[in-house]
UniProtKB/TrEMBL annotation:
It comes from Staphylotrichum tortipilum. This is Puromycin N-acetyltransferase. SUPFAM superfamilies: Acyl-CoA N-acyltransferases (Nat). Signal peptide: none annotated. Residues 82-213 form the N-acetyltransferase domain. InterPro entries: Acyl_CoA_acyltransferase, GNAT_dom, Trichothecene_AcTrans. Gene3D superfamilies: 3.40.630.30. One of its GO terms (molecular function) is acyltransferase activity, transferring groups other than amino-acyl groups.
Length: 220
C-alpha cells in the first residue's frame, strides 16, 4: 500500500504511544519501566502506563509547538486515511521570548523509573552542550524522536521521516542535530549526518550525537 507522510493531528497521538513503546521495547523501555516497579502501576499493567505516558508526551510536545509528522499506510494513492506506521517529532529553534516547554509536566505513572528518566534527559542535555557549546542545539532543528512500528521497519519509512525534516531545515538554512541509537545510526549516516565526539553509554544504550549541516563542509 502507498506510504503517505503528513503532519500529525492531536487525534493521531492516541496511536503514537503504542508505536514508541513497541519501537523501544527492547532498549530504552526496559530501563524506564523496569520489572521491579510493575507493582506500582496505577493500571496494573506497565505496558498500558507506558503507552499512555508516551501518548500524553507526544500531545504535550505538539501543544508546545514541536513539529510532528506521521507516515500513514494509505489504502489508495491520494487517501489520507489508513494506519499510522511511524512518526517523527522535531524541536525547532524557539522564537525570542517563547514560553518554556511543558513536555516534562505530563503525569508520571508509578511504574516509570523517574530517576532513570531524569538521568537520561540530563545525560543527553549535557552531551549536547558539551559538543555544541553553551547554546546546545537551541538554534538547530532537533530530531527528538523517530519511531517506526517494528512490523513496518525496513520499508523506508524512517528515511522518509528523517529526510522530510532535513529538507525543511535546509530550506530555512538550519542545521539538524540528533542523538542516535545504534538502530538509527546507519540511517542517519546514509543521510549525510556526521558523528560529533565519541559515542556514550546511558543506562545500557550506546548513543551517538550527530549533526547534519545545511552549509556544505569545505574540505582541504
Ligand atoms: C531506526 C529506525 C527509525 C529505522 O526506521 P526504518 O523505517 O526501519 O528505516 P528505513 O527502512 O527507512 O531504512 C533506512 C536505511 O537504514 C538501514 N537500516 C534500517 N534499520 C537498520 C538496522 N536495524 N540496522 C542497520 N541498518 C538499518 C536500511 O538498510 C536503510 O538503508 P537503505 O535505504 O540504504 O537500504 C527504526 O528501526 C526504529 O524505529 N527503531 C527503534 C527506535 C529507534 O531506535 N529510533 C531511532 C532513534 S535515534
Amino acid at each position: 500500500m502507498p506510504l503517505l507522510l503528513r503532519p500529525a493531528t492531536e487525534a493521531d497521538t492516541a496511536r503514537l504511544g503504542r508505536i514508541g513503546r513497541d519501537a523501544f521495547r527492547d532498549t530504552v523501555s526496559l530501563v524506564l519501566f523496569p520489572p521491579h516497579l510493575a507493582c506500582k502501576s496505577p493500571t496494573g499493567d506497565p505496558d498500558v502506563d507506558e503507552v499512555q505516558w508516551r501518548d500524553d508526551r507526544s500531545l504535550q510536545r505538539m501543544r508546545d509547538g514541536n513539529l510532528t509528522f506521521v507516515v500513514v499506510d494509505a489504502p489508495d494513492r491520494g487517501s489520507e486515511a489508513g494506519e499510522i506506521v511511524g512518526f517523527s517529532q522535531w524541536e525547532l529553534p524557539a522564537p525570542p521570548n517563547a514560553a518554556p516547554a511543558q513536555a516534562n509536566q505530563v503525569a508520571l505513572p508509578g511504574s516509570l523509573d523517574q530517576e532513570a528518566l531524569q538521568h537520561l534527559f540530563t545525560a543527553l542535555d549535557r552531551e549536547s552542550h558539551r559538543l555544541l557549546g553553551p547554546d546546545g542545539h537551541s538554534n538547530m532543528w532537533y530530531l527528538m524522536l523517530l519511531a517506526i512500528d517494528p512490523d513496518q521497519q525496513r520499508r523506508g519509512i524512517g528515511r522518509m521521516l528523517a529526510k522530510h525534516g532535513i529538507d525543511l531545515a535546509a530550506k530555512v538554512g538550519k542545521d539538524v542535530f540528533l542523538v542516535a541509537t545504534p538502530e538509527g545510526k546507519p540511517l542517519y549516516q546514509s543521510l549525510g549526518f556526521r558523528q560529533l565526539g565519541d559515542s556514550f553509554d546511558v543506562l545500557g544504550t550506546i548513543y551517538s550525537a550527530m549533526l547534519w549541516s545545511s552549509e556544505p563542509r569545505v574540505t582541504s
